[in-house]
């Protein structure tokens, strides 16, 4: 298994190596962009092996100290450390931390803006005066062939300005690639870095929860034998629930998001579950009164989804 890359028709690059699946784009001086792309590829080629070499430590619960050595591994641990009183491993921040590491290759003179989208977890570089639009797609169950052909019908969009303290966007939920303890279709978080957003989204999505015997949960290791969550009960199916239960679950998640916002760990969060949405306040982040149908295809960076 070797790392591979492909130039896409619209000028973006696709890097893939095992579970790492990145889409990258940069704008600015042509020579600077070309150098950044090549630097990003060189950094990407050996990154998976770096993480594999420290996998036992990355799958261990975060404690007071770490023996991890690699810069990305340490970034994962640091992003998760504020949540060590809950059960969390550095793997909760792996997608964001990888995106952040590759994005660093684009933080240079001549690059106006750049982004690395790692399966929906996004790291951003915005030079002064630049901005970017990120689409929000809250429920993967609604994805169909027509949307794949003609563009996603987004639930909203986020405009991130260079003046905002936001360079990372991540989403977690029970339908996503990572396992979740909660029932959120999605918990989208904006934070200082992609690794921080990734870890926080995991914690907030776990908090969107309600006890109902119709919700199917299984020990994490039974769902995926290499899971870092061990015997913790992860959500594998959520039936349609009464609206009141959904509201209650979202309020639990919102309370957790507000705690993290007050602690300075996130800038804002948007939570979705079975067609209902709640969000923490953040000036200018969320659209006002824009129908989802009008947002199809308008995102520049791509969409965040669990």
Structure description:
The chain is α+β, with helices and mostly antiparallel strands. The protein has one domain (4-304): T-fold. It contains nine helices and 14 strands. It has a nine-stranded antiparallel beta sheet. α4 packs across α5, α4 packs parallel to α7 (194-207) and α5 (94-103) runs antiparallel to α7 (194-207). The longest helix has 20 residues, at 243-262.
Looking at this protein, list some descriptive labels.
306 residues, alpha+beta, T-fold, 9-stranded antiparallel beta sheet, 9 helices, 14 strands, 25% strand, disordered C terminus
Q: Beta-strand level of the residues, as a percent range?
A: 15-25%
Mind telling me the C-alpha Rg?
19 Å
* Order of H and E elements: EEEHHHHHEEEHEEEHEHEHEEE
Gross morphology is globular
Mean pLDDT: 88
Number of strands: 14
Q: Provide the CATH topology.
A: T-fold
Q: Quickly count the domains.
A: 1
Low-confidence stretches: 146-153, 287-299, 302-306
Question: What structural class should be given to the helix and strand makeup?
Answer: alpha+beta
CATH architecture: Roll
Give the CATH superfamily. Answer: ApbE-like domains
The CATH class assignment is Alpha Beta
How much helix is in the residues?
25-40%
Largest sheet: 9 strands, antiparallel
Strand order in the largest sheet: 1-2-3-4-5-8-9-12-13
Distance between the termini: 26 Å
């Amino acid at each position: 298994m070797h790392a591979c890359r492909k130039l896409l028709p619209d000028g973006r690059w696709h890097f893939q190596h095992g579970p790492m699946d990145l889409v990258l784009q940069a704008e600015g001086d042509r020579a600077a962009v070309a150098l950044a792309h090549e630097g990003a590829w060189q950094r990407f080629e050996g990154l998976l092996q770096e993480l594999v070499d420290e996998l036992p430590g990355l799958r261990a619960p975060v404690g007071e100290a770490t023996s991890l050595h690699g810069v990305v591994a340490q970034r994962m641990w640091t992003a998760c450390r504020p949540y060590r009183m809950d059960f969390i491993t550095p793997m909760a921040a792996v997608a964001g931390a990888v995106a952040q590491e590759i994005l660093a290759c684009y933080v240079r003179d001549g690059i106006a803006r750049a982004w690395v989208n790692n399966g929906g977890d996004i790291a951003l570089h915005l030079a002064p005066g630049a901005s970017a639009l990120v689409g929000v797609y809250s429920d993967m169950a609604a994805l169909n062939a027509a949307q794949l052909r003609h563009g996603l019908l987004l639930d909203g969009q986020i405009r991130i300005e260079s003046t905002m303290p936001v360079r990372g966007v991540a989403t977690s939920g029970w339908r996503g690639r990572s396992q979740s303890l909660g029932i959120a279709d999605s918990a989208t978080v904006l934070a200082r870095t992609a690794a921080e957003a990734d870890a926080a989204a995991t914690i907030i999505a776990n908090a969107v929860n309600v006890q109902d015997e119709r919700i199917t949960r299984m020990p994490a290791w039974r769902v995926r034998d290499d899971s870092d969550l061990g015997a913790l009960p992860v959500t594998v199916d959520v039936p349609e629930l009464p609206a009141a239960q959904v509201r209650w679950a979202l309020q639990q998640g919102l309370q957790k998001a507000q705690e993290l916002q007050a602690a300075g760990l996130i800038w804002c969060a948007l939570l979705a579950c079975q067609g209902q949405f709640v969000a923490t306040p953040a000036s200018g982040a969320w659209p006002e009164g824009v129908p989802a149908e009008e947002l199809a295809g308008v995102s520049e960076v791509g969409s965040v989804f669990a």
